[in-house]
Structure formats: structure tokens, C-alpha cells
UniProtKB/TrEMBL annotation:
Protein name: ATP synthase subunit a
InterPro entries referenced in this protein's UniProt entry, alphabetically: ATP_synth_F0_asu, ATP_synth_F0_asu_bact/mt, F0_ATP_A_sf
Membrane-spanning intervals of the chain: 12-30, 65-91, 97-117, 124-143
Coiled-coil intervals, chain numbering: none
Topology in membrane: Multi-pass membrane protein
GO molecular function, one term: proton-transporting ATP synthase activity, rotational mechanism
Organism domain of life: Eukaryota
Stored PANTHER family: ATP SYNTHASE SUBUNIT A
Main subcellular location: membrane
Lineage: Eukaryota, Metazoa, Ecdysozoa, Arthropoda, Hexapoda
Subcellular location: Membrane; Mitochondrion inner membrane
Organism the protein comes from: Polistes dominula
Keywords: ATP synthesis, CF(0), Hydrogen ion transport, Ion transport, Membrane, Mitochondrion, Transmembrane, Transmembrane helix, Transport
Length: 148
């Protein structure tokens, strides 16, 4: 008798496991540029990447292109991991805490460190509530820093 969670175990299957087939789906989906006429997948992929590239360029104007490429790669990796969840009997890696926790903590910590080093005044401004008297602003920053 099959277990409800046996679909997540790659060693047990009924003749064929779709989990191993899921490794080939991103390679099939990635659009190739061999043809003269661009496919709909390639146009969609290029539109999303160009939009994200413009967004990252506006945020990181004076920083290297390698950072932007790494962020685009990370976005595409998460996109394809979640895209696999639309197929039946495939358990996506982004559902595991062992994938999402390091990814989210690393991204959150890097954004916080980046902002504290490069945009210090704006970070302090977010720690001060609206209509705070100027004499209490220093103490409010300390209180908000400790409370978060």
C-alpha cells in the first residue's frame, strides 16, 4: 500500500518517478536563440530579464554588473523551482526549510548590511516614529534598534 508521502521519496516509485524528470524541465524551458524568429518563451524570458535588469540598475547604479547578474540568476532559480510546483507529484525544493531559511536570511542580512553601510541616514530615519520631538530622536533610534 502506498503512503501519501511516498511521492516525495525518489527511491520509491511505480516504475517511473517524476521527481527525476523535474531536473530536465528547466533545461527544456530555457529558451534557446538558434532560430531567426524568436519564440514566445524567449520573448517572455527576455522581457522579464530586461525589466529586472532595469530595476536592479536603478538600485545599484554605481555597483558592478556581476552583482546584478547574480541577483538575476537567483531570481530565475527561484522562479523555476516554484514553476516545478505546478506539475503534479513534484515536490519543489523551495518548500523545504533547509532551502528557504538560508536563502531568506542571507538576502535579508545582506540588504540590511548594504543599507546600513551605504544609506545610514535613511536607515536611522526609518527607526524614528512620525512626529517625534527632535530631542527624543536619538533615544527613539536606540529603543527601536533594541526592540527589533
Amino acid at each position: 500500500m502506498n503512503n501519501l508521502f511516498s511521492i516525495f521519496d525518489p527511491s520509491t516509485s511505480m516504475m517511473f518517478s517524476l521527481n527525476w524528470l523535474s531536473l530536465l524541465i528547466p533545461m527544456i524551458y530555457f529558451p534557446n536563440q538558434f532560430w531567426l524568429k524568436k519564440s514566445k518563451n524567449l520573448i517572455m524570458f527576455m522581457t522579464i530579464n530586461n525589466f529586472l535588469l532595469n530595476e536592479f540598475n536603478s538600485m545599484f547604479k554605481k555597483y558592478k554588473l556581476i552583482l546584478i547578474i547574480n541577483l538575476l540568476t537567483l531570481f530565475n532559480m527561484i522562479l523555476f523551482m516554484n514553476f516545478l510546483g505546478m506539475f503534479p507529484y513534484i515536490f519543489t525544493p523551495s518548500s523545504h526549510l533547509s532551502i528557504t531559511l538560508p536563502l531568506s536570511l542571507t538576502l535579508w542580512l545582506s540588504i540590511m548590511i548594504f543599507n546600513w553601510l551605504n544609506k545610514t541616514k535613511k536607515c536611522f530615519a526609518h527607526l524614528v516614529p512620525l512626529n517625534t520631538p527632535p530631542a527624543l530622536m536619538i533615544f527613539m533610534v536606540l529603543i527601536e534598534t533594541i526592540s527589533t
